[in-house]
């Protein structure tokens, strides 16, 4: 009776560690990042003195502030441009898994950005629809501007909000502690909603 033994070279070896699976739908985060970069460009251009596309698409009061080079308004333009670039970095951050606290922070910011952008976009669209339907009156010289907010700025804000929402949800689904991380997303969204409601009540923003 003979017993076969595997040669040392043929011994069973442990399977090599699996390579991490590629992050699905990373393009959602990159789409949010691209939106942020594209939205930041006009702010920087107007802060540097460029007025291309401003006079017909933005409120005349803001155009005058930019044309007169009012210091505080230029500071606001630079600040908003930097905030939009920060949004782009958040979008990039949502493209892959991060550490515990970094992931929570990104989800919190992503949820807040989604609500803020969709809220303001819907405001622009609703105002435009009411004006077009004759339910709300505006000065004749502002009728054309209202259409720009209805057909351009409103949908643009909503598209950005949906991009951040999709990127945030996708990131949460890939996170190990998704239930806990999801709470941070809801907290960011709730905070943004309360801030938006406060701006409506106080008339600021």
Estimate the mean pLDDT confidence: 85
Tally the beta strands: 0
Q: Percent of residues in helical segments?
A: 55-70%
Rg from C-alpha positions?
A: 24 Å
Shape descriptor = globular
What letter string, H or E per element, gives the SSE order?
Answer: HHHHHH
> Total helix count?
6
Share of β-strand residues: under 5%
Amino-to-carboxy terminus distance: 90 Å
Q: State the secondary-structure class.
A: mainly alpha
Please give the largest β-sheet.
Answer: none
Q: In terms of per-residue confidence, which ranges show pLDDT below 50 for 5 or more consecutive residues?
A: none
Task: Explain what the structure shows.
The protein is mainly alpha-helical and 205 residues long. Helix content is 69%, strand content 0%. The chain has 6 helices and no strands. The radius of gyration is 24 Å and the shape is globular. The termini are far apart.
Structural features:
205 residues; 6 helices; single chain; mainly alpha
Explain the layout of strands and helices.
Blueprint: H1 27-47, H2 60-67, H3 71-93, H4 100-132, H5 143-174, H6 178-202
Helix pairs in contact: 1-3, 1-5, 3-4, 4-5, 4-6, 5-6
Task: Describe, in short, the structure shown.
This protein is an all-alpha fold.
């Amino acid at each position: 009776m003979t017993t076969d033994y595997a040669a040392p070279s043929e011994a069973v070896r442990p399977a090599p560690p699996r390579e991490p699976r590629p992050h699905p739908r990373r393009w959602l985060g990159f789409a949010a990042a691209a939106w942020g970069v594209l939205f930041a460009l006009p702010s920087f251009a107007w802060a540097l003195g460029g007025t291309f596309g401003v006079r017909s698409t933005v409120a005349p009061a803001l155009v005058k502030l930019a044309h007169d080079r009012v210091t505080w308004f230029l500071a606001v333009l630079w600040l908003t441009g930097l905030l939009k670039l920060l949004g782009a970095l958040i979008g990039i951050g949502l493209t892959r898994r991060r550490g515990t606290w970094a992931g929570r922070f990104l989800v919190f910011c992503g949820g807040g950005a989604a609500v803020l952008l969709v809220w303001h976009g819907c405001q622009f669209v609703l105002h435009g629809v009411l004006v077009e339907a004759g339910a709300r009156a505006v000065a004749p010289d502002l009728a054309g501007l209202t259409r720009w907010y209805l057909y351009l700025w409103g949908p643009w804000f909503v598209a950005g909000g949906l991009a951040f929402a999709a990127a945030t949800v996708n990131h949460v689904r890939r996170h190990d502690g998704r239930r806990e991380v999801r709470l941070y997303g809801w907290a960011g969204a709730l905070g943004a909603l309360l801030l938006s409601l406060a701006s409506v009540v106080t008339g600021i923003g």
